């Protein structure tokens, strides 16, 4: 039986081929890491639930997109129905970092009029001696894009959980403020089963009267 959840967030991973998107997802969802990984063909699907706060369980529907140009027509169809995007680059691969703006621009154009929350991830932080992108430069790019930044390693399991928690929390907080809401025909956020359903502050239900008259 599926675990009950209050909301489902559809999250998409973006970035060049070989930056480690699949490794991040396998570490986060299955707790495993392998040095051998086959390139993603088209789109792969993963899922995991998080307890975002007491009594609120979020199901993350995670889509791993191929970074190769020949699969772009397939992967772009998934952009519009996603509420969150992890922009992943390889800290040891300068070109993958330089392509982040292109990924961000392409996705931003496809998701309109919906809202997508991004998080920038510098992956393979365990390979310190091979680093080609200084943290300060990555943080400047994140600031320019208006997103947060975190460095991760699927191999050493560094900050993997934190990255997904950060993005889920950011989406959830925007739901609390009313900036993101469920909509018919959009799969970015879906209401689930039971429990707490968020309403913007001005739509909070009035307290029940205790009058017995």
From TrEMBL:
UniProt xrefs under Pfam families: Ras
Keyword annotations of the record: Autophagy, Cell membrane, Cytoplasmic vesicle, GTP-binding, Lipoprotein, Membrane, Methylation, Nucleotide-binding, Prenylation
Principal subcellular localisation of the protein: membrane
Keyword Protein biosynthesis in record: no
Transmembrane parts of this sequence: none
Localization per record: Autolysosome membrane; Cell membrane; Cytoplasmic vesicle membrane
Gene3D superfamilies, sorted: P-loop containing nucleotide triphosphate hydrolases
GO cellular component: autolysosome membrane; cytoplasmic vesicle membrane; plasma membrane
Topology term for the membrane: Lipid-anchor
InterPro entries documented for this protein: P-loop_NTPase, Rab39, Rab_GTPases_membrane_traffic, Small_GTP-bd, Small_GTPase
GO molecular function: GTP binding; GTPase activity
GO biological process, one term: autophagy
NCBIfam families assigned to the protein according to its UniProt record, in alphabetical order: small_GTP (TIGR00231)
Database matches in PANTHER family: DRAB11-RELATED
Entry similarity comment: Belongs to the small GTPase superfamily. Rab family.
Protein name per the record: RAB42, member RAS oncogene family a
Lineage: Eukaryota, Metazoa, Chordata, Craniata, Vertebrata
